[in-house]
Specification:
With 730 residues, the chain is α/β, with parallel strands linked by helices. It is built from 21 helices and 27 strands. Strands 2-3-1-4-5-10-9-8 form an eight-stranded mixed sheet, sandwiched between helices. Strand 21, helix 19 and strand 22 form a beta-alpha-beta unit. Helix 1 runs antiparallel to helix 8 and helix 18 packs across helix 19. It is elongated and about 105 Å long.
Length: 730
């Protein structure tokens, strides 16, 4: 049973704060505010437990007050003053505080429910039975990510309560008939995705108290989701930028303010239940004075200074030294990533992996997670084919204290989760003034140079990712760096995207030591691949081996290159690149991303600003998609030839190329069957030298990483020579 007198006090605080903010807006002391008038029945929620998490809506002022947000801090936020390190950063009242267990939406509507579901799954098996509240407005419920949240909560039985304010308006657009529960003919759904729906009258706080207590108790005990729809009225404006009188019937507005005001209705109920008018007047005067004192305190706070940091300056890595040596024999990049993931799964119970096809027996389409789900059952799991669900859920897990790792099948699919990554994962530290971190890791293969990829399985989006403040972006070019960078991502608290070039995953060179636990690469520190004084080459990912070959050829001509593998795009090693470029006077930056907007433009702009005497060139993909035709793809991507041509231009060299003629049609080259194939074994040779074969005839049975398959002749002819034998691995 709720304490109605204290509930009324909380509702008054919210309403009087609304009135004060409206007055401050009229005085020009507030740029923007949002009214919670008509939504105060949320104050009737039973007290939340200390481990519960609340993902709040912008009309949840009563719940913010309940969770410890002081009126003076709320008013200071509205005025953009320095109430904390985060003062002035957030559009009011979208505040974040992990100590208060409250995470308000960032701005884009409909993203927080997926995070709430992820947090609920992280808390699901705790003995104290915590729950998560996911609050939203009726207009946002048709966002695709909200519908994904309902689906994921239902599938996984997440202990999350979806709380929906249904005031039947999305700014000026009526929502009747445009929500998942509002059906033709006025019918209402009783459940959605198997989740029971409870409708509550937000104008009756007493009834709300009982209904909300029952809803919370059900989710807490059953460990399953629930939906509560609060039928309320929008008594104030949508926001200070809106005037609802311009599109709503004034008689309807007046009737709502008269009959559906929860504050007025609870006051009348208290009077009818025996409370004295004088007692209520004293309470109302006390709350008015409290808000007035809060305003005086808020006005004394200073204005904040602009913050130039979007994430911790040291990334949480302290003074840890680099350790990423090569081994003569050891682990490939795929094996090093696998071993590093296994290490953290073994030693940290908060680590989990989620993605498509990552469970055994497949173990990821490129083999990176092979064996992990068998060793760590329940912690390495296949996710639904929904990138926003994967990333949004992982954000919630991170906010709940876990260390989630998300596998995106190809970097090209990241845009499905773009808003989760940009607006939430990367912003939580900055929005909270450093109080809240989101230690999320995303792993995704990137880049071309392989058959069978095509335009939407071969992108290199590091340039776009580098535009996101608060996000680390790593791209290793070898196995020890891949393991070292992944260790760095686990050691820090900054959300990180680690892009691994699929063409280098199984490269039989640049091995990592078998013992990966001690490997570490400091973000923002380039690898010095070779030293020279004639030209600076800067690359990352797939382009580093190309730069090495180009440097070898230039060395044969008596010219020594300074070659830097950038390794991390955000942060990046400005000082090393600038120092090298100033020393050599010539800079070539090589990357797979498009020329326009590629990260090479940022590097050259920085160098040109600080050292205009340095002559610079870029080698990058033209501003087109990569085709599936392998020869066309290779013609567009950076190559040893294009790198040498750029270098020759700067070094004022003449360069010529031998003509090898047309590709020979009498030689058959067998491509790999799968991008994960490290080698192909000849299981059976079905032809012999001198034999005549027809087009389409089976020549051999081969076995790759994932399957045994047949190799058929692409043309008719006579077998002149065989370069492999049964049992060979190539």
């Amino acid at each position: 049973m709720i304490n109605l007198f204290e509930t009324y006090r909380l509702m008054l605080r919210s309403r009087f704060l609304d009135l004060e903010e409206t007055e401050l807006h009229k005085q020009g002391l507030i740029d923007f505010c949002v009214s919670a008038a008509g939504c105060e029945a949320a104050a009737a929620f039973p007290p939340f437990h200390s481990e519960d998490l609340l993902f709040l809506h912008y009309r949840d002022r009563p719940l913010m007050l309940r969770q410890g947000w002081l009126p003076e801090k709320i008013l200071a936020s509205a005025m953009g003053l320095k109430f904390s390190a985060a003062g002035g950063r957030n559009l009011h009242p979208l505040l974040v505080s992990s100590t208060r267990r409250t995470f308000n939406i960032s701005g884009p509507l409909g993203q927080a429910p997926l995070q709430a579901v992820g947090a609920a799954l992280a808390l699901k098996n705790k003995n104290t039975n915590p729950i998560v509240l996911a609050s939203m407005g009726d207009g946002s419920t048709q966002q695709g990510q909200v519908l994904e949240a309902f689906a994921e909560a239902s599938r996984e039985a997440a202990p999350v309560l979806f709380f929906i304010y249904d005031n039947q308006w999305a700014i000026s657009s009526p929502t009747i008939g445009k929500t998942f529960w509002s059906l033709p003919g006025g019918r209402l759904l009783e459940e959605f995705w198997g989740i029971p729906i409870r409708y509550v009258d937000g104008a009756d706080p007493v009834a709300c108290g009982s209904a909300l207590a029952e809803a919370v108790a059900r989710v807490r005990s059953a460990r399953k989701p629930g939906i509560v729809i609060l039928r309320c009225s929008r008594l104030g404006e949508h926001s200070s930028a809106d005037r609802q009188e311009t599109y709503r019937d004034p008689n309807e507005l007046e009737e709502e303010r008269t009959t559906r005001d929860p504050v007025r209705n609870l006051r009348q109920f208290l009077l009818d239940s025996g409370s004295a008018e004088q007692e209520l007047c004293r309470l109302e005067q006390t709350v008015r004075e409290e808000i007035a004192q809060a305003l005086a305190l808020a006005k004394r706070l200073p204005s904040p200074e602009p913050c130039l940091e979007a994430c911790p300056a040291d990334g949480g890595h302290g003074d840890q030294a680099e350790q990423a040596p090569f081994a003569e024999q050891g682990l490939t990049m795929a094996q090093a990533l696998n071993a590093t993931l296994a290490h953290h799964l073994q030693h940290d119970a908060s680590v989990s992996l989620h993605g498509q096809d990552i469970e055994d027996p497949k173990g990821d389409i490129l083999g990176v997670t092979k064996g992990l789900s068998s060793r760590f059952p329940g912690r390495v799991t296949n996710a639904p084919l929904a990138e926003a669900t994967m990333v949004g859920g992982a954000i919630g897990r991170a906010l709940a204290g876990e260390k989630p790792v998300v596998f995106i099948q190809f970097a090209d699919f990241l845009p499905h989760a773009w808003s989760q990554l940009v607006c939430d994962a990367a912003s939580y530290w900055w929005r909270s003034g450093g109080e809240t971190s989101c230690p999320l890791i995303i792993l995704a293969p990137c880049g071309g140079y392989r058959r069978g990829l095509g335009p939407f399985h071969s992108s290199s989006p590091e340039g776009a990712l580098a535009h996101i403040p608060g996000l680390n972006v790593f791209i290793p070019a070898n196995a020890p760096d891949a393991a070292g960078l992944l260790h760095a991502a686990f050691a820090g608290n900054t959300p990180t995207v680690l892009l691994y070039p699929n063409n280098l995953l199984h490269q039989p060179s640049h091995f990592a030591p078998s013992a990966v636990a001690g490997l570490f690469v400091r973000p923002g520190q380039a690898r010095q691949v070779r030293q020279g004084q004639d030209l600076t080459l800067v690359g990352w990912g797939n382009t580093v081996p190309l730069c090495e070959t180009a440097a070898d050829l230039l060395a044969a001509a008596g010219l020594e290159c300074d070659l830097l593998d950038l390794r991390t795009i955000a942060p990046w090693d400005r000082s090393a690149v600038l120092a090298s470029a100033q020393r050599t006077g010539k800079l070539v930056v090589v990357h797979e991303d498009t020329l326009t907007g590629g990260f090479g433009a940022e590097i050259i702009a920085r160098v040109a600003t600080s050292a205009p005497e340095v002559r610079c060139r870029r080698v990058a993909r033209p501003d087109v998609l990569l085709p599936a035709n392998n020869a066309n793809q290779l013609a567009l991507l950076p190559s040893v030839r294009s790198i040498l041509e750029a270098a020759a231009d700067l070094l004022e060299l003449d360069i010529s190329w031998p003509n090898h003629g047309e590709e020979r049609e009498d030689v058959l080259v067998v491509p790999g069957h799968n991008p994960a194939d490290e080698e192909i074994q000849v299981v059976e040779l079905l032809v012999s030298v001198g034999e005549t074969v027809a087009e389409g005839q089976i020549l051999a049975e081969l076995e790759g990483h994932k399957a045994t398959y047949e190799f058929n002749s692409p043309r008719a002819g006579c077998i002149a020579a065989l370069f492999v034998a049964k049992g060979d691995c190539v």
